[in-house]
Specification:
The chain is of the alpha/beta class. The chain has helices spanning 99-113, 140-149, 158-173, 198-207, 225-237, 250-262; strands spanning 13-20, 39-46, 61-65, 68-70, 72-77, 83-90, 120-126, 130-137, 180-187, 211-216, 241-242, 265-269, 280-287, 296-297, 300-302. It has two domains: 13-79 and 264-302; 83-261, Rossmann fold (3-Layer(aba) Sandwich), CATH 3.40.50.410.
Amino acid sequence: MRGRRNVKCAVFVVAVGSLISTRAAVAQPQQQFSTEVNRVEITFTVTDRRGHSATLGRGDFEIFDDQRPQRIIDFSPESEMPLRLALLIDTSNSVRDRFRFLQEAAIEFLNRSLRTGIDEAMVVSFDSSPEMALDFSFEERQLDEKIRDLRPGGATALYDAVELAARRLAEAARVGPRHRAAIVIFSDGEDNQSRLTRGQALEAAQRANAVLFAVSTREQGPESGGDKVLQFVTSETGGIALFPFRMEDLGHSFDNVANLLRHQYNILYRPEPLVADGKFHPVEIRLKQQKGLVVRARKGYYAPVAPPAGK
């Protein structure tokens, strides 16, 4: 059964902010803004420097929106909240010589990350263009088979793949119960084919309220441009990029990501003042007095646009 193995990881507080509405079931939350119902949701994970999950309470945290302190409306552990995970697998020529090993590592990651019948995942492959290899599925065998069916070849359209996954996550968030959203990139980060820019891909992920994680497939050597891309996009969304020293270390890197996904809390607050300007608003989570913990948080959220007067 998935999600049964205990795994150690590094130290992080990982957070993702989501602007939600109590009318979300009947209206797209990005299109309406009411001062009576809208709140910002922050999902985050806390561990100590040895990778152990930290037990904290509501009073341990402070939230700042546009540098203004906010009142926490609700705080609760959310490790049981269902997860929607988009696994992005680089199938370009740059990974051809070790692709079979990469496939098995990706399959093992899903086996460790997803809880049977609770969490779901989709698989997006990308070379010269992204392709939805498999839409959201709970089925372990179906996910495994789709990953094993992938074949390498072509250039690398990483940014287009991130946008495709983010768009699908945003669509799924409009229906059904609340889910956590994550995108896990399995690539060397060297984009040479996308029609979209890095900034456009990142904005799509932020609007989908998805945390980006990355496990590099590049062989060891000096830091590359692709390394910097993976570090930037994951940091901006509250995730982390990992760079295995050897291909044999991929499993441990995936364990780190799986552990972060399994240990999370949830905070809700209502922004004061409420600003319906459609712009990006910075958010910061701070620990009041806890020492030995590092905060790694999503940078903020996009506010919706207020409807014209009289409508």
